[in-house]
Amino acid sequence: MAAEKSLDKLRGEIDRLDDALHDLLMKRAEVVERVAALKEDGGQVTLRPGREAEIVRRIVARHGGRFPKPTLARLWRELISGMCAIQGQVSMAVYSPERGAGYLDLARDHYGSSAVMTPWSSPGQVVRAVAEGSANVGILPMPDRDDGELWWTSLMGDSTDLPRIVTRLPFSGATRSDGLEALVVARQSFDPTGYDRSWLGVETLPDVSRARLRAVLGAAGLEPTALAATHRQSDSWLHLVEISGALSPDDRRLAKLVERREPVLRCALLGGYPVPLSPEDLAD
């Protein structure tokens, strides 16, 4: 009997905590509505990948107790997605090859169960959907995968409306059994957090080795973390390079990289992403 009374008391405490959590959730939604009212974007959905990453990273870092950090991160991602939905429906163009729904799963895990997803059979279709405005974001394969289409070269144009890389998935640090990762593109600039990577498209003279490209980047003050892909053309080569830190279009190092025009002919900033949470970040 005493044990049953103790259980009833604890269950009552859980109910009161649930009510308190729900009250705070409703208050948070009210603040989000006020933020949306102050924005001058005509009611359009504005995603802030960097700000969202900072929120999740801060919550995970301050966490204590036995509640699993990976579950906490996923819970907060769903919360953020629901709050974004208050401002408007998020639509996604998702690369979905004939076999497997892995990219759809990655998109749903990050952007929540309420997001509208349209599958496309090629990366090029995803880029076009975002560029034309029929999707807020696009989910694309990592460029070092052998998927046959060099979608990143289409981001190297001069138009200011071209999609830019803004996120890398999964962000929560949860490694999939198939090792699948993705990049997210949107028609907005990269949102720096202080713990970031940038992507550069670099056009060089032919026959430039990876070692020489690394040396040229280093001489310009850029630290490459990955040489992800190379597209060999007859008169020039295109390289996709990941750089440590957040770059802006007016970064002096980019001008220094091309000032001699040998071997670098031009470079284009394709965006960047907040560094995902690591397994160590999510460890108990």
Write structural notes for this entry.
The chain is α+β, with helices and mostly antiparallel strands and 284 residues long. The chain has 3 domains: 1-40; 86-186, Periplasmic binding protein-like II (D-Maltodextrin-Binding Protein, domain 2); 196-274, ACT domain (Alpha-Beta Plaits, 2-Layer Sandwich), CATH 3.30.70. The chain has 7 helices and 9 strands, in the order H-H-H-E-H-E-H-E-E-E-E-H-E-E-H-E. The protein has helices at residues 2-38, 49-62, 69-87, 102-111, 123-131, 210-219, 252-258; strands spanning 91-95, 116-120, 137-141, 164-169, 182-186, 196-204, 224-232, 237-244, 264-274. The protein has a 5-stranded mixed sheet, with helices on both faces. Strands 7-8-6-9 form a 4-stranded antiparallel sheet. Strand 7 and strand 8 form a beta hairpin. Helix 1 packs across helix 3 and helix 2 runs antiparallel to helix 3. The longest helix has 37 residues, at 2-38. The two termini are 36 Å apart. The mean pLDDT is 90.
Helix and strand arrangement:
Layout (H helix, E strand, L loop, with lengths): L1 H37 L10 H14 L6 H19 L3 E5 L6 H10 L4 E5 L2 H9 L5 E5 L22 E6 L12 E5 L9 E9 L5 H10 L4 E9 L4 E8 L7 H7 L5 E11 L10
Parallel strand pairs: 1-2, 1-3
Antiparallel strand pairs: 3-5, 4-5, 6-8, 6-9, 7-8
Helix pairs in contact: 1-3, 2-3
Pfam families: CM_2
Organism: mine drainage metagenome
Protein name: Chorismate mutase domain-containing protein
